[in-house]
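Subject line: Sequence and fold of a protein, written as structure tokens
Area: Proteins and the way their chains fold up in space.
Start of record: The labelled sequence and token lines come straight after this line.
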Amino acid sequence: MNDEKLGLDTRVTHSGRSPRQHFGMVNTPVYRASTILFPNLAALDAKEGAKLRYGRRGTPTTHALEDAICALEGGDRALLAPSGVSALSTVLMSYAEPGAHFLVSDSSYGPTRKFCEFTLRKFGIDTTYYDPAIGAGIAELIRPETRLIWMESPGSQTFEVQDIAAIAGAARARGVTTAIDNTWSGGYFSQPIAHGVDISVQAGTKYISGHSDLMLGTIACSAAQYDRLRETYLRFGICISSDDAYLALRGLRTLGVRMRQHHTSGIEVANWLLQQPEVLRVMHPALPQDPGHDLWKTYFTGASGLFGFVMKSVDRDALARMFDGFSLFGMGSSWGGFESLIVPSNPAVYRTATEWNPGGQTVRIHVGLEDPADLMDELRRGFERLTA
């Protein structure tokens, strides 16, 4: 189901489900398969055009998730990968050719940069990192050999919001493909394809899963980009298990409810942090004082629970006193689950086109589904330990 006349919550609830095709079962069952048998030689000879032909190429369960991702992101087609990094690497490789040039936002996720620097460079692809605030000025960086412009909005760790329609428009005028990491919005609060972007990538590990127990990458795209992406996808043998697809579909059904709670709680905690003497700056684009707020209002209908803040400079021992005493906030990679997380970060190590020098310790925080009052109380006690 991808009826644009229906509300997003309705589409997310009903897409990728066909109870009548599965004996009335509300959820598409788990179809585990490698070999798929054909009833006769004619069917075997025609397998090239068959939707079901081999487990690696998809099952009814994975196809159901593809349909649901299209409904969520507003894409014509979708592909599924075993992780977010696998998804972004598939997109980057699809446009890699000797002598090609890529433009990548300087605020992009670390593994995106590393794939460009350590893998694509071996194939003769040149990458230029650009200021995420460049907007339509990206046109000045486009070369005849530019094949892909990569965006991430808000930016990883530092949360700059990009003018994606302006960048997509400049790229389209020069025949350049655009792709974006849309994980922060969960695909729920922003649909970049509707603003002219060709490809939207997510780490479905995060909000689509929602339960911190699943690895998944998703690629939603326009019909014009699908064959090129699919070719790379097939050549690398990329696929996901039907069990993981089932879990992702299960998480997807509650995406809207969870995202609205992340939005409300995240803003409440962010506003509280603004008032703390230990905090120099809060990086949350939904706050009116954030430099990206106007663009956020243009491209987003809400905010996820992930944002950042900068504390006054402290030594590592003081930081350990603060962080080691948390019980509701966990320390670990990823985010997007029901639980809250907090980690110190150093975005400066990923910057080349812009400088990150905030004057203190950068922290990344994910506000989960706990009571915000409890989270703020835990942070308050953390600041007390910090300054003890």
User: Anything to note?
Assistant: The chain has a mean pLDDT of 95. The two ends are 56 Å apart (CA to CA).
